[in-house]
Amino acid sequence: MALSQPGLLPDSVIDGSNRPSATSMPDTAVDANTDRSIFAARSRRQLGLFLAGAGFCILSGLVTRRALFRRYKATIPPFYQPNSQPRHVNGPAEAAQALGLASLNVFSWAIMGVGGTLWALDISSMDELRRKVRGGLGVDTTGKSEQEGEEEMEEWLAAVLSRKDEKEDKKAAAKVQHSENAGAGASR
């Protein structure tokens, strides 16, 4: 063949010295927890909530558009009919429909926003969310369990409440002493 003739291909291609070594090749057996590509199963699962929200946004937009078109169409009088007769309006029914459509639109946008935020922040479970929030606040850096954290919070709250009770007792004692002093001064 013509390709095997000397001089047609560089020597590095013929002897294979430009082939990547085993150490320079990336490991294809990557753990599922460390694989952060967009096409990983974890990312697709996270992206599912965003896409579901986007689908709900599209559907709620179509439902809203249909309802608005139906309302507009009801305002147009039939052919050869006078337009001086006002259309009968059922206010409570229209208000309820408007509230329902607005709620549907808001919830669909909220689902899409939460899904996109969770995907962007790489959070796929409540445990991961809890870990990220506590790590960001610097709360869970000691490795304490949730039960130990609750016990520590109870101790702190008990200390604060006992200090408050002491202050109230001091105020009450001072008030009693002040009233006794005022009563003794009046009897002289």
Q: Could you characterize what this model shows?
A:
The radius of gyration is 37 Å and the shape is flat. It starts with 10 loop residues before the first helix and ends with a helix. The protein contains five helices and no strands. With about 190 residues, it is an all-alpha fold. Helix 2 runs antiparallel to helix 3. Helix content is about 65%, strand content about 0%.
Helix content: 55-70%
The chain-level mean pLDDT equals 76
Give the strand content.
under 5%
Distance between the termini: 131 Å
Q: Helical segment tally?
A: 5
Radius of gyration, in Å, reads 37 Å
Shape field: flat
Sheet/helix structural class: mainly alpha
Number-wise, the strands total 0
Low-confidence stretches: 12-32
For the biggest sheet, the summary is:
none
What order do the SSEs take from the amino end to the carboxyl end, as H and E? HHHHH
Blueprint of the fold:
Layout: H1 11-15, H2 41-75, H3 91-120, H4 126-137, H5 146-187
Helix pairs in contact: 2-3
Features:
flat; mainly alpha; 5 helices; single chain
Quick structural overview:
The chain contains 5 helices and no strands.
